[in-house]
Amino acid sequence: MVDLADVCRRFAHDHVARHGAGMLPSHRRAIADIIACRSAALGGHLWRCEACRAEVYAYHSCGNRSCPRCHRKQTERWLAARTAELLDAPYFHITVTVPAELRAVLRANQRDGYALLMKAAAGAIIELARDPRHVGAQVGVLAVLHTWTQQLHYHPHVHCLVTGGGISDDARFWHPARKGFLVPVKALAKLVRGKLRDALARQRPDLKLPALAWHQPWVVHATTWGTGPQAVLDYLARYLFRVAITNNRIIALDDEGVTIRYKKRKANRLRTGRIEGGEFMRRFLSHVLPKGLHKVRYFGLWHPSRRALVQQARLLLARERRPEPSPDPQPGPPAAVVEPGRPLCPCCRQGRLVHLRRLGPCHPLGP
Hints:
33% helix, 2 domains, 3-stranded antiparallel sheet, 5-stranded antiparallel sheet
């Protein structure tokens, strides 16, 4: 099975040699981490099966947020921590896409540009939702930055999960959104465009911004996403820790290029395409974010400073819903007892693994 680490081992050396000192430190770090991930270079643990006596090596993950191997447990921990904070309310999914004329500016100024884009998108949603003609209250916005298409082209956009309702300024009432409607999409697109233009002019007056980007319609989509905590969990699992390409989409590798699987949106069908090795590295690395840049941000009702308002909103929503009587629990088969800390052997699928020793990182020797 081909994975991203194999692609980096094949083509990264030539890419680094070609670009030299011009490469960003975050790009060099991503390449090194992905190649070393779950290998002896990072160390790990040695286990032995009690039944078949097979020895199993479990190497550490790199933890790089661009690595497709490293986010399952992180996602599970994050979702478990967020479950207690979710509101039992309808939700909307809003996507804000940057026009092509502005993408080169954002790519050259990622730290400021991405932060201002997310803030402008969330701020516009909150401002329009406060209008009494729409919601008339403060909504919660979770914004997630993505920069890629299925074919790894540079395409910065923001996914926003928005509560389908909000809490009043005096925190006494919950104002639900209308069914299937949150805010007008065309007005939202104009407001996001204006907020980003003003923010860039204030914070980065040195940038030369293309005039055409501010005189054409921006693409904004809004759809209903479901009701209750499960809708939020589905959204988070789908968008939150996604990376530019996963290993199961890489289907072939040769000396000259990479073949990937992608989805053709208009036809809603899967296609395959071949990308030259150097071009693949260029596309992939364009989606590696600078160190310390947060790709997930909270605004409005979900801002960390408004935790008390979230709790009040939860009480208001619970007051509006009468609890339904729960059916009598039916006795089921006894749950299987799993011994904690003792994983199942991947070889025989019967015995339990016994930890033998910790493996230190294996660094290559110098000349």
